[in-house]
Amino acid sequence: MFKYTTAIDKIRAMKARKKVVRGGSSAGKTFAIIPILIDKCCRTAGLEVSVVSESIPHLKKGAMKDFIKIMKWTGRWIDDHWNATDRKYTFSNGSYIEFFSPEGVLGSRRNILYINECNQIKYDDYIQLSMRTSGEIYLDFNPAEEFWVDTEVIKEADAEMITLTYVDNEARPENVDSDFAIFRRKADEEKAAGLPITSYWQNYCRVYIEGLTGNLHGIVFNNWEIVDRMPQFVDFIGYGLDFGFTNDPSAWVGVWKVRDEIYVKEFVYSTGLTNPELSEAGSKAGVNKNEATIADSADPKSIRELENFGYYMEAAEKGQDSIRAGIDLLQTYKIKVLSTSTNLISELRSYRWIVDKNGKTTNTPIDFNNHAIDALRYLALNRLSSNNLFEVY
Length: 393
What we know:
Blueprint (H helix, E strand, L loop, with lengths): L5 H7 L5 E6 L5 H15 L4 E5 L3 H6 L1 H11 L8 E2 L4 E3 L5 E5 L11 E4 L7 H8 L6 E5 L6 H4 L7 E6 L10 H18 L7 H10 L14 E4 L7 E8 L7 E9 L2 E10 L4 H11 L7 E3 L4 H9 L4 E3 L6 H9 L3 E5 L3 H9 L2 E3 L5 E5 L5 H13 L10
């Protein structure tokens, strides 16, 4: 059932037109703003509300999913009022909430605007959306680094910002507190070792636990972008698979190539999958059993089991310094990530090199939140290296 949180009260208390809500992981930002918008629609006839995020897949897994869940939990949901094609819910009094990405209806007008994870959209898109909004604007984000909200919006007279953390969300999952305690210990160890505040765990705790602006120093990949579709003429190279289970997800990606560009699609990204369940998930997601899947060679038993389920499997080639070799190889390409690959996108945004005590990046990446990236790296080493590459023109 829906649980009322402190975060809702704090956001409701904001007075400015532009309400900036920054916060850490599990702070319940979306789960606080959405009920406020629902309540406004129920109380005011003819209200027009737009909820925007970087892509439709991101909306479907985030704000839109939370909206539907909250509407059903609170007994407000009426099936006939939901237009799935337009992603628009119309209330009995004529008010509505619509969901779209910046590529959608930038030219339309509204009374209230909510941009979920606004640090993932362009400032120009925000300008176009805000100038067509007559009333309140809600902006939320994880403060991984300074961006246009900090440099532009928050300086405006009609804007205010609050910071939420996980303690403001009484509905947070039970494991959050224990996980954060582990992360804090790692940050303390970095600090005791003399590492700068830009080191991984100190920066992670600052951003995702304390909800404060961090510094993503030493990002590994800067050669990628999000695309909605692949071009017509591309050649399929193969799949990459990184095994996981309890804490780490199993990540299965596919790769296509044309000249110096590779297109990547996430097929499976989930924890708790046994190998039979992983096989079924791959099949449902559209993984072709007859095409090669390059999997982590450290788990030969899982490779054999997937072979028994009919998949064409290969073990990843791991030589000396294979992690750096795979990264170097991927950095020679322009990487195009399908917008549906939300977990891979999240990984690419945060994957960083270890920072030494002098604040300089090393040649070793941080082994955290890199499961889909590892799957991509396995594929690259087996299929895109000079020893295995076949050119596609």
